[in-house]
């Protein structure tokens, strides 16, 4: 079924039409890039009808709308996704090949829109797709960064960052909306006029909207992602220009544009920069203006806001929404202060994505007061009123000269949610314990999920085809139906097909690694993959330490029947996170030594693939045998890569952290390689003085691996290179790498043994797929709709 009616020409006609009239090229002279744009425009045409229909249906129903405010949307490439959801992939391939082009090459020409750092941003992208699939009237709001997450390369093993340039090409999916522009102010002063507080900003920039349609599965529904670009209100200081200061005349424009210029590349530490706070207010204020304008056009009485609008704050980055909404309702619209706070609080909700203290945003009061003077006043009043209601156990949002954005978000939220059962429990016990005691019931859990369209159907066509051939295609829109696979798994033909699909995916990846990175890898070796941001809590260094220990063990006894393994790493380190960058260099150094070892390299190779992004994930996950989810328990809020791997038939070696706990419950303990301390044991262990030293003394293997790194075995010309890492692990070892090492080694040897029994491994892998249906972001979004937003589906099949 394709969404084509009498008015829409065949896709090939559409491509040729756009090549001529939109791109202005003759087929004889068109480049791959021209063809890709032409195809994208032809596909976009097909989305627009569904988009208009959805917009009309939302207005007609007068239904509650959901607004997802997020600093990050890690959307990746959009063409393949759109084709799949429109069910045009077959026709597109035929049309493109009919024009004498390589379909994959056309798809791969699209830049990967990296408007996010990691899990939080990718989750937002999965949520948008599920909101459309579920026909929930919704809109995503964010920033149209000119430069997304930096491009990573290696220089002698060290991370080098270069600006990302996705917008240097025409972004075909967006529609500019010059009519939806708002002036956003900063600084200035506040004065009382006729009994009302009036904020007069010292400067202002223009927020200009760009809309990207987000089409759901089978084009049932299409929502909008609206991204804001910053512009100067007066593009040129003409007086300055006419006085001959041609550069200076452009300064206002440059200053304004800086606000939407770059994505901050830190996902765990607030940048501490005024510009970051400006970015946050810029997009939050523009979004709220837009939301209220739409609300006013549909409903008369502002008191209906909580019934008609649900706003989700994706972490605290848009937390200024609380005071801003109060300002708009109280100062601008004249509602009494208490009522304004009440309406705002019943409209807003907040998702927490991390408990790491360094990632919980706090802004110095003087900065907030200077940049947003009226907001600072409102924050103080909101905080004081809240504290006055609970004199015995007040938790202050303003304390020690800082505004705690987590506490402010909590105070101003109808619901606060964590992203896995474990994480939500820890929120209640730790960071938000006091606020939870004051507001029991406000914290709820919504375990994360991933969209099965991108993360199985599109990225792994071989496995998806087998599944559809076995149980039909209902699973794509209803992932829990994967359970219907299980009764078929005894079938030898099906097992063979599943194993064959994995083998073929691995062969493709091996070819690509050989061609692009010059490393030859055997597709029959186990593909052991750890891909995520580089962070000490995620413990890439535990993984590489195990690689060194394994290397030593193989060297000592080369004929012991080792299971061949390729350890694949990918991920970016925040540019200012020196230790994480050192880990990257260590992995690259270990790779160089191990891959060149004639004795061991038959059994063990290591590669760090540069520039991890959504596109690389789509390539790696279908080819993985083993998924590394080895964070220190209690530190990974959920994880979502862990779900993608299980869905694609990789087995997990992991700790009881984040959503690993729930994955293991679903796939069965016997199909999951568990190791390591629990979150409670972690806390107890940390209190043991000399815990790392004890672990090292008890484990000669660990001691030898650490000594090798310390003595320069992988950095022969520079033996002290890794003393900071070995010193940390032998000393404080906050993330308990040493204390978990022995059990990790034990689990990895169990993995080796299991992999040698190919039939059993395939069965375990297939059970991971069949039992991962619960981890669809459709399930997550249904949970938000029912338990947080009170929103209903409007779809044709609702
Ligand atoms: C991440 C968490 O680290 C990850 O465990 C979770 O799966 C993901 O959010 C989605 O919920 N956090 C971030 O990416 C992040 O930037 C800092 O957190 C606010």
UniProtKB/TrEMBL annotation:
Co-factor(s): pyridoxal 5'-phosphate
Subcellular compartments: Cytoplasm
Main location: cytoplasm
SUPFAM superfamilies associated with the record: UDP-Glycosyltransferase/glycogen phosphorylase (SSF53756)
InterPro entries: Glycg_phsphrylas (IPR011833), Glyco_trans_35 (IPR000811), Pyridoxal_P_attach_site (IPR035090)
Keyword Glycosyltransferase in record: yes
List of residues that carry N6-(pyridoxal phosphate)lysine: 644
Source species, domain of life: Bacteria
Pfam families per UniProt: Phosphorylase (PF00343)
Cellular component annotations (GO), alphabetically ordered: cytoplasm
Listed GO MF terms: glycogen phosphorylase activity; pyridoxal phosphate binding
Catalytic activity: [(1->4)-alpha-D-glucosyl](n) + phosphate = [(1->4)-alpha-D-glucosyl](n-1) + alpha-D-glucose 1-phosphate
PROSITE patterns per UniProt: PHOSPHORYLASE
Catalytic activity, EC: 2.4.1.1
Gene Ontology BP term (one): glycogen catabolic process
Matching Gene3D superfamilies: Glycogen Phosphorylase B
Alphabetized PANTHER family for the sequence: GLYCOGEN PHOSPHORYLASE, GLYCOGEN PHOSPHORYLASE, LIVER FORM
Family of this protein: Belongs to the glycogen phosphorylase family.
Protein name as catalogued: Alpha-1,4 glucan phosphorylase
Organism of derivation: Roseicyclus persicicus
């Amino acid at each position: 079924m394709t969404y084509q009616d009498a008015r829409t020409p065949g896709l090939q006609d559409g491509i040729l039409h756009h090549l001529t009239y939109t791109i202005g090229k003759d087929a004889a002279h068109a480049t791959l890039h021209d063809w890709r744009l032409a195809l994208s425009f032809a596909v976009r045409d097909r989305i627009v009808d569904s988009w208009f229909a959805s917009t009309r249906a939302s207005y007609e129903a007068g239904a509650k709308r959901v607004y997802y405010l997020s600093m990050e949307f890690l959307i990746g490439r959009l063409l393949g996704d759109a084709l799949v959801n429109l069910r045009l992939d077959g026709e597109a391939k035929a049309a493109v090949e009919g024009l004498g082009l390589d379909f994959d090459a056309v798809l791969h020409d699209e830049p990967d829109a990296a408007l996010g750092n990691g899990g939080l941003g990718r989750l937002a992208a999965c949520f948008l797709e599920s909101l459309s699939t579920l026909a929930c009237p919704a809109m995503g709001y964010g920033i149209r960064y000119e430069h997304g997450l930096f491009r990573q390369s290696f220089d002698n093993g060290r991370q080098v960052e270069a600006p990302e340039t996705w917008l240097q090409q025409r972004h075909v999916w967006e529609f500019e909306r010059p009519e939806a522009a708002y002036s956003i102010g900063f600084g200035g002063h506040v004065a009382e006029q006729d009994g009302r507080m009036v904020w007069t900003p010292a400067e202002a920039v223009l927020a200009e909207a760009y809309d990207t349609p987000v089409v759901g599965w089978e084009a049932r529904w299409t929502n909008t992602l609206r991204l804001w670009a910053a512009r100067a209100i007066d593009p040129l200081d003409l007086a300055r220009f006419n006085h001959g200061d041609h550069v200076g005349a452009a300064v206002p424009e440059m200053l304004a544009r800086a606000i939407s210029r770059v994505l901050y590349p830190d996902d765990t530490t607030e940048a501490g920069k005024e510009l970051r706070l400006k970015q946050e207010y810029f997009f939050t204020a523009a979004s709220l203006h837009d939301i209220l304008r739409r609300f006013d056009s549909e409903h008369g009485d502002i008191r209906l806001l909580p019934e008609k609008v649900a706003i989700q704050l994706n972490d605290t980055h848009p937390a200024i929404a609380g005071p801003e909404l109060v300002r708009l309702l109280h100062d601008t619209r004249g509602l009494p202060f208490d009522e304004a706070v009440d309406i705002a609080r019943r409209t807003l909700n907040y998702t927490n994505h991390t408990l790491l203290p360094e990632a919980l945003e706090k802004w110095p009061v003087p900065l907030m007061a200077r940049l947003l003077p009226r907001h600072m006043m409102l924050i103080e009043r909101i905080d004081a009123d809240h504290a006055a209601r609970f004199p015995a156990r007040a938790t202050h949002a303003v304390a020690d000269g800082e505004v705690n954005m987590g506490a402010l978000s909590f105070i101003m939220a109808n619901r606060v949610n964590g992203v896995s059962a474990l994480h939500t429990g820890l929120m209640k016990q730790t960071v938000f314990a006091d606020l939870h005691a004051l507001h029991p019931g406000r914290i709820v859990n919504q375990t994360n999920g991933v969209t099965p369209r991108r993360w199985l159907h599109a990225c792994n066509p071989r496995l998806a085809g087998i599944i559809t051939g076995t149980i039909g295609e209902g699973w794509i829109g209803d992932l829990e139906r994967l359970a219907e696979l299980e009764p078929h798994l005894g079938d030898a033909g099906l097992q063979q097909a599943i194993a064959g699909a994995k083998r073929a995916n691995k062969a493709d990846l091996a070819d690509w690694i050989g061609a692009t990175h010059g490393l030859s890898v055997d597709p029959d070796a186990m593909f052991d993959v750890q891909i995520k941001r580089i962070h000490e809590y995620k413990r890439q260094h535990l993984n590489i330490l195990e690689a060194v220990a394994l290397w030593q063990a193989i060297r000592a006894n080369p004929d012991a029947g080792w299971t061949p393994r390729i350890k694949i790493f990918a991920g970016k380190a925040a540019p200012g996170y020196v230790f994480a960058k050192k880990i990257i260099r260590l992995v690259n150094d270990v790779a160089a030594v191990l891959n060149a070892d004639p004795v061991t390299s038959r059994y063990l190779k290591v590669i760090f693939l540069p520039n991890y992004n959504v596109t690389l994930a789509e390539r790696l996950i279908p080819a993985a045998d083993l998924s590394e989810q080895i964070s220190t328990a209690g530190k990974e809020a959920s994880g979502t890569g862990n779900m993608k791997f299980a869905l694609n038939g990789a087995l997990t070696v992991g700790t009881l952290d984040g959503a690993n706990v729930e994955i293991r419950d679903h796939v069965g303990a016997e199909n999951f390689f568990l190791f390591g301390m629990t979150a409670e044991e972690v806390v107890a262990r940390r209190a043991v003085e000399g815990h790392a030293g004890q672990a090292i003394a008890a484990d000669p293997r660990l001691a030898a691996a650490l000594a090798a790194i310390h003595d320069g075995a992988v950095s022969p010309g520079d033996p002290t290179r890794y003393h900071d890492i070995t010193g940390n692990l032998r000393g404080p070892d906050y993330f308990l790498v040493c204390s978990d090492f022995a059990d990790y080694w034990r689990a990895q040897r169990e993995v080796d043994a299991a992999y040698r029994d190919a039939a059993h491994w395939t069965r375990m892998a297939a059970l991971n797929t069949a039992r991962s249906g619960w981890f669809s972001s459709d399930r997550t979004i249904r949970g938000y709709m029912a338990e947080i937003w009170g929103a209903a589906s409007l779809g044709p099949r609702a």
